[in-house]
Design goal:
The protein is an all-alpha fold. The chain contains 3 helices and no strands. It is elongated and about 50 Å long.
Length: 59
């Protein structure tokens, strides 16, 4: 859920501080969920190892 604060900050700035929302801001807001989807779609939860056991294998 770390992708939500930048979007929320931008929306709050536009609504309450009357900051301008440029086309690049809209593009960035559209890219965030797209990136999250790409990251999550490549995961196979059945084969995913817990982080702790993965760290032990590396060390």
């Amino acid at each position: 859920m770390t992708y939500i604060p930048p979007v929320a900050a931008l929306i709050i700035g536009v609504l309450f501080a009357h900051e301008p929302m440029r086309a690049l801001d809209r593009l960035a807001m559209a890219c965030i969920p797209g990136g999250v989807y790409l990251l999550q779609s490549g995961r196979d939860p059945k084969n995913a190892a817990p982080a702790a056991s993965a760290a032990r294998r590396v060390a």
